[in-house]
Design brief:
Blueprint lengths: L12 H16 L12 H4 L1 H5 L2 H4 L9 E6 L13 E6 L17 H10 L16 E6 L4 E2 H14 L4 E4 L1 E2 L6 H12 L3 E5 L18 E6 L15 E6 L3 E4 L9 E4 L2 H18 L5 H10 L20 H6 L35 H30 L2 E4 L66
Parallel strand pairs: 1-3, 1-5, 2-3, 5-7, 7-8, 8-9
Antiparallel strand pairs: 4-12, 6-12, 10-11
Helix pairs in contact: 5-8, 6-7, 8-9
Amino acid sequence: MTVNTGTRHRAPRAVRRGAVLLGAVLLAIGIAPPAAHADTVRQAQWHLDYLKILDAQKQSQGDGVVVAVIDTGVRPDHPDLQGQLLPGYGIGSDAAPDGLRDTGAKGHGTSMAGLIAARGGSDDKALGIAPKAKILSISTGEETDADSELAPAIRWAADHGARVINMSLSGEGKASQTLLDAVQYAASKDIVLVAGAGNGDFVGVGDPANIPGVLAVGAIDKSGNVWERSNRGPELGLAAPGVQIVSTATKELSASGYSIGDGTSSATAIVSGVAALIRSKYPQLNAASVINRLIRTATDKGPAGRDSSTGFGIVNPVAALTTDVPTVTANPLGVPASGAASPPAQAAPPTENDDLPVAALWIGGAVCLVIVLGLIGLGIFLVVVASRRKRRPATPPAPGLVPGAYLQQPGYGPMATAPPGHRPAPPTGGWQTGAPTGQWPPQQGPPPPAGPPTGRDPR
């Protein structure tokens, strides 16, 4: 397979906006774009069969593992997520203080949580990759600032029992030192960090996925081909299903409680779920060895070895859980950079040019000083600019319905019981317990129209 790492062209902005407007008009008058038919939610979740998740769940279901989801928050009242959520945290003015409310217009956090840990139980319910894992929801609102929101969220997750951190979001360019330090801190706590490569909004793998040590995930379709909008780059670690992925949805987005979308966000959540399966079956493994299992057992695609389109290949949950893979002490994806000062450089040995005239040495030193000061100034400017960039989560932009997804369970479920080692110590101020008031209402009127939901996930 030829890997194309060049610039990917997108339709002009006016054309894309026109397409979105047309889709909204069609939905408003009751005409849905054509979509593949699925009789049940379970049948629509094609990624479960593609990855042989039921076979993988005979090995592990994620018991005792906490997966932090840094996103728009998660609705605790969805029937498929009852009992799966731990009290979390909110950062930013548009975030739920305890993470247990989805403040995103597209219900992105609720969708990612469902892909990881939805309980399943019948063909009309969503099944997550690790249905016995628990979700630690950390809400950063609709858009996530790298320094003031994402970095503190990573640190908070690391201090509150997370074993895996899912970041289904992406920003252009290189990470700021603040974000690098947060990743390094989480890595020092033996946590697996997983992030989305990006959805074609820029060239290359975005941050935090491009940070050494973070597992960057791209998306494939039902045929195993790389999704056209999945960002490519040398930092890519794995690929996973990310096209027409069905998961849990907020009631504002979908009356059925389910939606469908495209994006590396979904692929990222799926890989995080597989990481939870491994951490549950092999609790003695360090994070480096968990990542090593994931990449060494992946199903290779394209050129042999690691490539810029699928990384080490497509995640293979059964192989990751059953193959004999040696343990490692160092993260095979590298070590995140630290903000610690570099050790002083050793003095260079004398050379044959040490007898240069003093004037020449002064001139050369002055030139070097000017260059260094210029580079420092440029670096400060770039850090300031990078710290102001926003990371936008993947969101299915349109509501949709899945046949047979009639919600029969009103009311809220119980809060999850924290597994051993989880420390839900409340942050200073703003701590809320329990679920928000209200309930998930039973669907009224006739069953939803045929065909899966029609949203596309831009991340």
